[in-house]
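re the bet — no i am not wrong, look at it urself. input seq straight from the record:
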Amino acid sequence: MKLFLKILSLSIFSLVIIFTGAFVYYSAVTQGVDLDPSKLENATSACSVYDGNGQEITLNGGVAAENELPENLRNAFVAIEDKRFYSHKGVDYKGMARAVINNVKNGKIKEGASTITQQLVKNVYLSGEKTLKRKLKEIKLARQLEKKYSKTEILNLYLNKIYYGEGSYGVVAAAKTYFDKDAKDLSLSECATLAAIIKAPSTYTPYKNYELCLKRRNLVLKEMFSQGFIVETDYNAAINEAIVLTDKNSDNISDFSDEAICEAIEILQKENAEQLNGYKIYTSVRSDLQKELPVPTISDTAKDFIVLVTDNKSGIIIAYKSTVGQIKRCPASAAKPWLVYAPAIEENYVTEATKILDEKTNFGGYTPSNAGKNYQGYVSVKESLSKSLNVPAVKIANSLGMKKIKEYARKLNVSFTNDDLSVSLGNLSGGMTLKELTSAYSPFFSNGYYKKVGFITKIINPDGKIVYEGENDDTVKVFSDSTCFIINDMLKETVKSGTAKKLSALNLPVYAKTGTNGDEHGNSDAYCIAYTPDFTVSVWMGNANGALMSNSITGGSEPTLAAKEIFSCLYADRSVKDFEVPKSVKYVEIDRNEYEKNQRMSLPDISSNENPSFWFTLGTEPTKKYNNIVTPIIKDYKITVNNGNILICINADSGVSYTLTDKNNNISLFGRGNSTLVIKTAAKGVKYNLTLTPYSRIGDEITFGKEIKLPSVKSDGN
């Protein structure tokens, strides 16, 4: 008994020490932290976003009085944001304990515990840092707020200050933006919709993600019913209503306000739009171009699109159209130029003239295929990129190595966790936004330097101080100017004869890469990234809900046509000067016969229009002639069948080697000069389709002769 009492006393003493220490720390951290009602009651607390002409595009519709807010609106927010709002005194300690336990169980932060009161003081008084000190200050201010204001007043302040998306601050502006109504006239369904949006305005806006917004609206209605805020008949009626939105013209300038605000949150390391109160955000989005920019034509199977128009010199977005916002998707083949080809050229693994055998290939269990499962045989690196062939890209990546690929990707601010060879075809874990994908192309028109594409040119804080101003200096050199020029040459070929040839009608120096993600059941993503020395036009098409499009919609179809129309608009009254040729490259003519027959780069004896020419980084160009090498040939052959054996007697010069193959029957034999190759104990009745391939080797050089398809033959064996 004495031992028990001793343990109990020690436990109580320990708890007293812990709580005393916690109280002392709390008092020290929150000393001088007091509620300033003037900040809270300021009606002009929203941030302002401006277009390139200095015109404000955000909406602050003023403040709704208590009698102008429907009871359903207040109840909707309480039901989904803070169901214990009317019972706690600013801080929900039970909710905090539950959140801590759940987060510990999950091993990560999956849910928060901030009440509406806490959210209000956090947005008005505190920074976006996620620290214990800030949380303690938040708790003190929330308790003070609850002592000074009634629950209804707190809700009214909250609803009038939060950001609802589409450039709308406060419920008055939101009601006008989404439903063209005064706040007091909002229906139950509309109240629930606004409560649904604020979880993540750029994600849940019904203009861009209708189905996602509808799903969350229905969740709000369900919570309102389960918590007794509405009766069953009202719940059933509201949940069956469509979300009827105000018609919004395609040139509505608020199309990019959400994107600019999200970008500002990232730059300033804030938590949400409400913490930008009083900030001024300036962009370079041109209102005239927004109005003139053609809206992409999409089919019934593709309902969504994103279009970015970027000024290449500054890296600033000057026009933007989107039905879905900045979502992350698999970039597919649109990633090949900067992910595979440019690093391989930079590291001198290949030139644009290097020949690669495009055939069905197994890479340790991974067997990529080209579109339509068509294979081209030996192709140049240039051709493989312009036609977006998958097998050559994987072969290059396999030689380069995933470590090197990730090294270059990091310089382009691209990260992914998977390291299998499917990465080379744009299968990046987590995907990329169209802004990120466009940024990855920036070295090709910026002398090898990376530029992070964005909307914002300048941010001014509430005190009038510039806290961000075009911080897009050329600081990260990713590729040499020679590599960039050669990639551009290959992407010009993509426009001339490859997957982006719909752009070839433009009388412009334009470079492009397409990308398509899908399978035989349909395509999920279609891209065209096209640029001139002045502008980049980036187009994505697909479905926000993940539904597949028709296989007819590829990067080279509707997205490329959309890019063509936009460039026609951009260059309606201006000319363009092409990229200059750097001194680090050389244009070299090579012998056509050697190149086509032997896959070898040789200088020609005589210059000819029939000879191909390629750009090379200085030091990688061919310097030899191989006209002294005779193409190896098989002079004669004879086939005999004897006692189950098939004998092929071959007549060739002593320097000529050859292979005898039959893939279907797993035959692979080698010979040299005059010799007889024997297929022993061949199965009776089995048909053999044999191929002879002659070649010769001088040093490291291999010369292939013409393949010979032998007549079919059957064994007479048992």
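see?? Confidence is low (pLDDT under 50) at residues 250-254. told u. also The two ends are 96 Å apart (CA to CA). so pay up
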